[in-house]
Amino acid sequence: MISSVQKHQTNQSPLSVNSIQYQLECFEVALITLQKIEIVMKKSIFERSELAALTVANPLFDVTYIHTPNITVAFNLLKQGAEVPVHKHEHETIDYVEEGTLQMTIGSETHVLTRGMVASVASYVTHSAVALSDCKVINIFYPARNDFK
Fold first, then answer.
1. Are residues 23 and 71 in the same domain?
2. 33 and 68 housed in the same domain
3. Rounded to two decimals, what is the model's pTM?
4. Which positions ≥6 away from 55 have C-beta within 8 Å?
5. What is the enclosing helix (H) or strand (E) of 20?
């Protein structure tokens, strides 16, 4: 009769080192495959109406946003007269005026941005904005805005 130790040593047992290593390799392959399937199955295309809405207590603002692990993109519909008060944050920001006229102050400089213009705001630089007309503005933040989640 062969002892369990002898079976282990001769790789006849399902619990042999080679068998366990093979099972672990199969498990790793299966896990990687599932991760790839999960990435493919995650939704990548959205209608604006499907995006998360940022709660803003001002009826002149309608803000939706989307995150990736590293950035946040906010889509802003601003009614004429909407004011973004002076503030600063850690996030670098790119602001793109898709439609309308937006007065923006970055640091001590004030500019009027119109359709197609882009502003760049560095981390921790004070900035503010006023919608001089109804506007569509896209903000890109890096790193992602955890306070929007």
1. no
2. no
3. 0.70
4. none
5. helix 17-41
